Every structure is written in C-alpha cells, then in structure tokens.
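Q: Give me a protein?
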Amino acid sequence: MIATVELTDLHLSVCIGEHSAAEILPEIQVLDLVLTVNQDLVCTETDTMSDVFDYDPVLDFIYKSITGKRYETQECLISLLVRYCAQFEEVIQIDISIKKESKREANGKLGVRLVLNEEDVKKFRNFSN
C-alpha cells in the first residue's frame, strides 16, 4: 500500500526571474507537492490529528518562503521546499513540481520537477534550512 499527502494545484504569487526587481512582477506559479508517508498516517482507524501527517506546517513554510521574497530560479524554490519536507521523519518520498504559464507564442506550462526516492530523502535530511 502506498499512502500520499497531496498539496496540488496550489497557485502561488511569487516573483521568479533574473530581471531587475522593478521589472518583474509576481506571477502565478502552480505548485504540486506529493509526499509519500507511512501508510498508517493515512489509513487510520482514528479521527485524531496526532495519528495523521499534519501538512499545515508545510503550507505555512511554503507561504513564508514566498511572501515578500524573490527568486532567480524555480529550481532554488523547489530545492528549498524539498529540504524542508525531508526534515519530517514521516516523509518517505517527495514528488514536487512548479510551473508557470508561457507568455510567448507557444501556449503551455514551463517548469521544473524533482522526484526523490527514500534514499534521496534521507540524504536531504542531512541538510539544514
């Protein structure tokens, strides 16, 4: 059995780009974050928060990481989020992506994705935020 906690299609207003701060405006970046956790944290017989994975601290960290901040790359932002999520012992695997709408002639989404298996997550646990 695989159990996941999913924070998907989160529309974040964040400045990302290598333009001057005056030129770049916040734009919507769409974040998808899937955390594989111990199955007992999802398939539970109780209705108690202490028996599940509480994703509120993750959401708080995401919003704290973008409020009033500017990033040159999407890669920097998702790496920061991965390092944070890896600190939770309950997290076994991480699948994260961030995308934005193309503003050019070609319609579509532009973005980056990281998929970490259990061994990768353990390596990130050694990093501090």
Notes: The chain has one domain: 3-125.
